[in-house]
Write a structure and sequence with these properties.
This protein has eleven helices and twelve strands. The chain has about 290 residues and is of the alpha+beta class. It is globular and about 65 Å long.
């Protein structure tokens, strides 16, 4: 690394995610943010670098997407260390001071369009693989590339019955038909508040993406799942990009089920009850006839 970034003068651990270690590395050429881990999945950091570059190309001026300086994947072996080096952005250490700017910035990202659902390369959600095979049908993509793989890992017993999930899958074409009116948008893909970093300059940085082109409501559903965002951010987003009727009634839950299944598979059964609760809410909405209307 020193051949690339200059002499390392100090390394200070910083708070980060649960998958990789993170540090501020002070070099003779300036500070960098380093994320690293032994035994990380093959192509994990390559995928993150590509996702950040894709977001950076379309993000506009309201949010910051950090520049990737270099990366090396470890190849998946237990003793092989992979890493990604990213420009150092100074965090404010506080809360989001301009949530409207964040809302407008997210709307700007979602305003870009792609021709197909998915992406040119598969990726990861946390350490779990995430298929991004291109598709023309969003409901099929959401079922086959998102829900079914995670459901297979979790097993029916922990997160609902086979009959319940079959009812959901059968309803998806109607539930998600509005997505085709919106079209495929670039998604951050893992937009919880830990991946939104308030900066000293007043803007927010978006980090650790699980990038692909999907329905923009997916990012909003993740935001709503774990909270931590101001209503002012949502209002600014909706002023720029209003939502079709039915998001809160049913589509939000459909999208949140994916992230809940991921959490079951990454962190254990503590998320099983919440997954079943959201599944029951969605099925109840289907029963009432709250589909894409």
């Amino acid at each position: 690394m020193e051949r690339r970034f200059g002499t390392v003068r100090s390394v200070t651990e910083v708070s980060g995610g649960s998958i990789s270690a993170t540090a501020r590395v002070q070099t003779s050429d300036g500070p960098i943010f380093l994320k690293y881990g032994a035994g990380s999945p093959e192509r994990l950091f390559e995928t993150e670098a590509a996702g950040l570059a894709a977001l950076r190309a379309i993000a506009g001026d309201e949010v910051v997407i950090p520049e990737v300086l270099d990366y090396r994947d470890g190849g998946g072996g237990a003793g092989e260390i992979g890493w990604i080096a990213i420009e150092w952005l100074t965090p404010s250490g506080g809360t989001i001071t301009d949530p409207e700017r964040l809302g407008r910035g997210l709307a700007c990202i979602h305003s870009a369009r792609a021709e197909c659902w998915g992406w040119e390369a598969d990726g990861f959600i946390g350490s779990l693989s995430q298929s991004n095979d291109l598709a023309n049908d969003w409901a099929g993509f959401w079922a086959d590339r998102r829900l079914r793989p995670q459901l297979h890992l979790a097993g029916f017993g922990a997160v609902g019955t086979s009959e319940q999930w079959t009812k959901l899958f059968n309803a998806l074409p109607d539930l998600l038909s509005v997505a085709h009116a919106d079209g495929p948008s670039p998604l951050h893909g893992d937009l919880w508040n830990g991946n939104v970093v308030p900066l000293a300059e007043g803007k927010c940085a978006l980090v650790d993406p699980a990038f692909y082109h999907g329905h923009r409501e997916v990012d909003l559903a993740m935001i709503d799942l774990f909270g931590g965002f101001s209503a002012r951010m949502r209002d600014a987003y909706l002023e720029a990009l209003p939502l079709a009727e039915g998001y809160e009634e049913v589509r939000r839950g459909v999208y949140q089920l994916y992230y809940l299944l991921v959490h079951v598979n990454l962190f254990g059964g503590g998320y099983s009850a919440r997954t079943m609760h959201v599944l029951q809410q969605v099925l109840a909405a289907i029963q009432r006839g709250s589909l894409s209307r």
